[in-house]
Every structure is written in structure tokens, then in C-alpha cells.
Amino acid sequence: MKIAIMGAGSIGSYYGARLQKGGSDVTFIARGDHLRAMQRHGLTVEDAGKWHLSDAKATDDPSTIGPVDVVPFCVKLRDTETAARAIKPIVEPRSSRCSADYISVVVEQPGMVRKIGHLERLAFGEYDNSRSPRVEAFLSACKAAGINAEIPSDIMLERSTIGPIRSHSLTRQFGLDLMKEVVAVGRARGIPLAPDFAENCLAAMDQLAPEMQASMATDLSQGKPLELPCSPVRLSNLEMKSAFRRRAVAPCAISLPFMSTAGDQRPRSANGRHFPTPRAVCDQSGMWSKADLARR
User: Fold this and answer.
1) pTM of the entire structure?
2) Which residues contact 118 (CB under 8 A, 6 or more apart)?
3) How many beta carbons lie within 10 A of that of residue 245, not counting itself?
4) 10 and 143 belong to one structural domain
5) 107-120 pLDDT, tens per residue?
6) Strand duo 101-109 + 149-150: pairing
């Protein structure tokens, strides 16, 4: 299987290295010092052990690769549109795109990545949930590479439940930081919340069934209106009015509107509805003014 890793930073490099080690023909699309290090010295991976790919193919120009079968899309949100345009020369109608899920990897130094912890899961599938030959082929490539991969029954519902969030150290800490920030804003506005209120909420969350999911996550998957005017956008606005120094809530308020795909060809949810566009979500939330929206 011919694979191009779009955005070979930490996660992209890790999965690409595993896939190449498992027998796939992999090209890493990267940039900066990490790209130059891979071109000169190959790629080193540290997980259960430490191993090296001396023949890692790396480039910053996707047009030099030629058509591929699969493009794991591992770029950050801010680079999504630019990266999507860049891979047009290598994507054929039969090509498949996928995104990484539930893993923590860091670039230790240019040309070397390290996986943190044991949590790992890669989920992918067709928009219509069919078990197509290309999806089955990529699953086989992942299994050959020792990657914990699966084809979920409904790819549109692949948003995290509470279990993986609270069991991973980074997402658990982020959740606690969010709750602490809510408590701090409440106390700043005169609400007598206990100093350990956030920790008690986290303890209560630990008692929930691991498959539980927030109702707004379900609404997002089903293409329904979201509660953004109430949270976290409303809380972010309260922080600004209280001159509170924001750390965690503001990024959530800013990123939530972009957790969908814009355009008439955007994917539909399980009930056949389009996911809301970023513009529609922001308009509903009141997060941007009409002038802001007009500029976007």
C-alpha cells in the first residue's frame, strides 16, 4: 500500500514509521528542521524500544510523490485548508483520508519522535460506513504494523466518550484545568464555590460509565444545534468581563466552531443532516459580530 503522511510531525511520523516498518510504501510530508533531519539521517522512534528507519522518504512537496492509496491527515487545525490544497496532486478519487485518534507522541528532537504512555487507537472509515476494499486494505496495513486500529460501525459518531478522556493523563489534566477555571470565574463573581469543587467534580466523573458522552457531543455528531451560547462561549465572555486571565476555556470557545467541515460537500451525520458550518455555529453562538463573519 502506498501511503503519504500529510503533516509528519510527532503523530504523523510515528504512524508513518510504524506503517513503513510493517511493509507499506510510506512518504513523509514534513517541514523545517524535522524534515531536514529525516532527509539526512532517517527517522528514529522510541516506544516500547528504540528503532531507526534509515531509508525514510521525506519531502515538503507533495506533487513529487505521485498518486497514493491513503493519506493520513495529521496537521493542526490552523494548517488544515493549506494542507488540503497541497495534497490535491496525490489524491485520486479512490484515495482514502484518515485522522489519528487517542495517542500522545512528541518530537524529542528533529528526526526523532517518542510515544508517551500506552494509550493508542486509530479509527477510520468511509462516510457511508461501508467496509470498502480500500478501508479493509488500510486496516490490514495497520495490523501488519502493530497499530491498534479499527473500523467503527459509525465513523460519524467517532467522538470520544468519557473513558479515554479521563484515563489519559494529558486530557484528564486539561479537563481538571477547565473545571478549575470555571470555579475561579464563579468565585470571582461572588459565587461561594468550595476551593476543591473541581476536584470533587473530577472524582464524580470517575464514577461514570466509560462509554458516556456529553449530550452536546451527540448533538454535534447528529448535526443538531449546539449549546455554544451557554458554554464555553458564554463563560469566555464572562471571563473577559471579569478581567480574568484565561488559560483553558478560551481555546475551547475558539476551536469548537471549527469542529466541522464547511461547504456543500461537507459530510453528513448518521441521520442524513449536514454538520453545521463554522459560520453557522459562530453565528448561533454570538461569538463573532456580523462584521467579523463578513470578513470570513
Assistant:
1) 0.59
2) none
3) 9
4) yes
5) 999 999 999 877 78
6) unpaired
